[in-house]
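Reading group handout, session on sequence-to-structure problems. Before we discuss, look at one worked example. The prompt was deliberately terse, the way you'd type it at a terminal:

> structure Dynamin family protein

The input record follows.
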Amino acid sequence: MMEKGGIEVLDSQVLIRETDFSRLAHTWEELAEAMKAQGDETTPHKLIQLAAKTKRAELNIAFCGHFSAGKSTMINTLLGVNLLPSNPIPTSANVVKIRGGEKAARVFTMNSGVLTFDPDTEMEKLKQFAVDGDTVESVEVSYPGTFLDEYASLLDTPGIDSTDAAHKIATESALHLADVVIYMMDYNHVQAEENFNFTKTLKDRGKPVYLVVNMIDKHIDFELDFDSYKESVEEAFATWNIHPDGIFYTSLAEPDHPENMYREFKGMLAQLIADREELVGTSVRSAAEHLIEEHIQVVRTSQADQRQQWEAQLDLLEVEGINSRDAAAVQESLEQEEATAAALEQRAEDARIQMEKELGVLLDNARLTYFSTNEAARSYLESRKPGFKVGLLFAGKKTEEERARREEALLVEFREKVAGNLDFHFKEWLGKQPQVFDLRNEEYHASVHATKIEITGEFLSKHIKEGAASSDYVLNYCADISSGMKLEYRRVGLNFIAQVVEMLKEQVRVESAAQGERLSVLREMAALHQKLAGLAAREEETKGRLLAIMRGGEQVA
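And the output record:
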């Protein structure tokens, strides 16, 4: 009963696991459709391949390396049967997949469907067909009785040193289906730069990578002991910041070689197969992420012509001290120039406000009447009252003379106070205003100091209010003539302020004309950078949308 229960639980777990892989496969199909909608004709096909592999939770172990590294021989030895020729089948899709299962050799063609051959007797025929037949999409050999099952495959890829570009493309295109990479090297060619570049690419893609240094029977111990040789290999890869998941030293020519790690290597492969589901679950997610990056590169390439056109336009634009390709510097300079332009535009109005405020303060602080002014005003006002009369004989003439005398006394008093307490400071302040704004105008300066604001008897008389006879009237009258005089000075001052403002406006026109071209070019640069940013935003938005689809599928799974 316990055993039966255990089997039932196990079956349930497997079912759930299969469902998880099925849902992930559906997510890859969704990603493929989204990429197709973007006009990508390459990456969706890889995702469909990845989806098919994911549904089966199939483990693919890819063998990569140089032609001379003995990959095919190693695979034949591991399988215990000579399924592979000494060189990979020379087609444009010459990655050969070998897995367990019913005995068959299949060629998947672009135009003729699937062709089947007997792997025991027709491998040469298969090879010949691949040379002369239709375009081959993939080659698959299944064979029973090996350490592989129908859910575990070995991929034999072309040599990465092939001069045939199609071979390199075939190897590269197969890597998204590889869960683990076995990178094989000839003992004598371990430190070839090509090895470092290729394995670093694999590790950067998140692939588990195991190194196999084959043909160690070539080692001559008296030249360098084997431990030192192994140390040099590890140091060489570490120098490139490559940290493989394991390194195996093997010899198929001398199985009994004391340093031969063939058995350990085969045991590691068996363990990988035992850990198939966990490895595949991690690998397909990593592959999908990488394919998203590939798709973004496709989108980027589709926008390359437009991007180059706008960048070429940027290169034609010049502003002193600015790198036109530096978007941040362009934006910062544009903001500074626009702030300067706004300040220029506002300069005259700000100056007018500032000068009017200062004029107001100057006038408010000017004291124009004192006790002596009040006394002169009192005497003057008395002479203006109805019934004012001086003497008996010739009274009319004497009265007029007295009125004139009192008026002159107030005029002299008031003129003195205005001259000392207002007029001097008024002209001094107005005369300096152009200099405050870096202006020079001698005519203006002379006009300010030539200005005369007359204080006349008429001015005094027009501020007398009929019927005012209170004791406070004298003080009110003095306040009125003070305000009236300040009003006259304000009127004159505003006229001079208007002249300074016009001078400033002309200065602004000149400066704006000089700045306008720089500002125009900066705006053109900024507009181009905004267009370029739009291209980048499209790429980021596409990437974000695809990652959201992927995350959604993973959460379901």
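Points for discussion. First: The chain is about 65% helix and 10% strand. Second: Strands lie at 59-65, 96-99, 104-109, 114-117, 136-142, 152-156, 180-186, 209-214, 246-249.
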